[in-house]
Design brief:
GO terms for molecular function: DNA binding; phosphorelay response regulator activity. By secondary structure, this protein is α/β, with parallel strands linked by helices. It is 30% helix and 30% strand.
Length: 273
């Protein structure tokens, strides 16, 4: 759906390290109309140069990029040519409500056209209103509110491969070119299969390549606990605990699954006993 042709065109830059993602977003913006993509940038350095030279109204900025993250780009922007920024991310943990609370939008990959249109409309409203607020401070506040850390600390964590947000509302599970977002609340249990994790939710099993430790760091420890070296369970799903002579226990979940719990993990779920 195209925007009103009588409305002033928004001058934009698209920043993403993936060529297909840049091209796809640019094509969708062209479909909307009234958004001119001045340049596509593949990294933070190119983005900073393009913003300084072209002074766009709006930047679509990928968060997790090699070399310089989207957060670092925001830190290095000059105050006198600060554009509006719509963050783009494939990881839902970065897209929590703090973005909306601070009136700066985000787009979650894969980007839906109606969601893109809503984000552009919001940006247009911001551009037409009095932008007396310090945009750079606003964006940096978002980084801090999302993570409890400074933008520099977040950038360091991203470069090291660590997850700066301990818990999230959804798991982003990639399968080739597609990504499935599984709500955390829907997960019954997770078990390991070599280098892969099997996420069981609402009768479906989703496979993701990660480690048990990395996955644990994304889950709320008050709800999810390890009950075996290769199993994490949603404690709210446990309906029955059965003990065995060898000291192990079996947990029966509301979905009907039966899981083995090792003796060494008994203390983690002691409220059941």
């Amino acid at each position: 759906m195209k925007l009103d042709d009588s409305v002033k065109t928004i001058r934009a830059i698209v920043v993403d390290d993936e060529a297909l993602a840049r091209q796809g977003l640019s094509l969708r913006l062209k479909e909307l109309g009234n958004v001119e993509v001045l340049q596509e940038c593949q990294n933070g350095r190119e983005a900073l140069e393009a913003i300084a030279e072209l002074t766009p109204d709006l930047v679509f900025l990928d968060i997790q990029m090699p070399g310089m993250t989207g957060f670092e780009v925001v830190e290095r922007l000059q105050q006198d040519n600060m554009p509006l920024v719509i963050f783009v991310t494939a990881y839902d943990e970065y897209a929590v409500n703090a973005f909306e609370i601070h009136a700066v939008d985000y787009l979650l990959k894969p980007i839906e056209l109606d969601r893109l249109e809503a984000a552009v409309i919001k940006a247009r409203q911001r551009l037409q209103s009095d932008r007396g607020e310090d945009e750079k401070k606003l964006l940096l506040d978002i980084v801090i509110s999302l993570t409890g850390k400074s933008a520099q600390a977040v950038a360091e964590l991203l470069r090291s491969g660590e997850n700066p947000v301990k818990t999230c509302e959804k798991l982003a599970i990639k399968d080739g070119a597609s990504t499935t977002f599984v709500p955390i609340r829907d997960i019954d249990w997770i078990d390991a299969a070599g280098d892969y994790m099997c996420v069981h939710a609402k009768g479906d099993t989703h496979i993701m390549r990660t480690t048990m430790k990395e996955l644990e760091s994304q889950l709320d420890s008050t709800l999810f606990q390890r009950v075996h070296r290769s199993t994490i369970v949603n404690l709210d799903r446990v309906e029955k605990v059965s003990s065995h002579i060898n000291g192990e226990f079996h947990l029966t979940l509301s979905c009907g699954a039966s899981l083995k719990m090792s003796r060494s993990y008994k203390d983690k779920v002691k409220h059941f006993f």
